[in-house]
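Q: I'm writing up a methods section and want to include an example of the input and output format. Could you take the sequence below and give the corresponding predicted structure tokens, formatted cleanly so I can copy it straight into the document?
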Amino acid sequence: MTLPYFDESHALLRESVRTLREREIEPFINEWEDAEEIPRELYTTMAEAGLLGLSYPEEVGGSACDVFHGIVMTEELMKSASIGLLAGLFSHNIALPPIVALGTPEQKARFVTPVLEGRRIASLGVTEPNAGSDVANIQTSAVRNGDHYVVNGAKTFITSGCRADQLTAVVRTGGEGFGGISLLVIESDTPGYRVAKKLRKMGWAASDTAELVFEDCRVPVENRIGEEGQGFEALMVNFQRERLGLAVMAYAAAEVAFDEALRYARERHAFGRPLTGFQVTRHKLADMKMRVAAAKAFTYQVAARINAGEYPVSEVSMAKNFACEMCDLVVNEAVQIHGGYGYAREFKVERLYRDTRLLSIGGGTNEVMREIIAKFEGF
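A: Here is the clean output for your methods example:
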């Protein structure tokens, strides 16, 4: 059955991404995981295939498409079983949308097009040592001084932060609370900008993650995105796409884990029969399949509303939480079915077990999602 969300263009894209994944990624992904970074050349490869600019306007170097083209790409790339790969390749998808939405033509030419062409790496800088999901408590300061802002502070857990050429930074230009937050693009060669350290993580090994420090960084006023005080609103719109993307990663990762568990259960024998010959295994697999299908269907439904121009904040939070919590359960069961092999690096489920744990934290924790749901549902 063909789902109403997809047409021939989605099928062609899926085949194209599958071919690229099989040729350019899967033969090398274990090497990149061990190196804890992906090669910069891969950005160029992805750009030439038109994948870095998917969902961006044509005037900035993107490709006109809908939300489901992005979902198709994520689903296919997730079959590499490396969330770190996607996080590193597409860190610009949380760094560039505010520039596309609020930036001037000159800012888009400087900060958007080169990234979509694979010539620059872009990151988003929100989280600080003492402020994560509590965005209104951001403390990195940007004080106006003539034609520049003087920026002081620190950011942490910044995806692609070690190698980023530019950072869309959330800074405080005004008083306390949401209204004092603005966005500045800070280029990595700015004096006073430095990578304090590369963070080593449980998972997402293929993406570099940094702690950044700003010490009297002089950033031109022309690098401000939008007006002063517009940062929080732009960030909240950005979060909706990010959270939808995390939901897609979650059910896609769980689907890979299920496929790996089913294959292993059919091949592995115990007490003279395959693991699928035991009711307990079949029931585990049935539950896993059921949960993946439910999360996928709900995420598609929410994506369709976004595609139609709606802004379903509560439902996006529901989709993220539902998919991420389902993913934790399914991946855990996949490891259990593999037994001791599920703990070995050579098996995909081991990497998925480490990588998927962050999905319930990134883009707003499960607890924050529940607060958002409660607020928008009025209870």
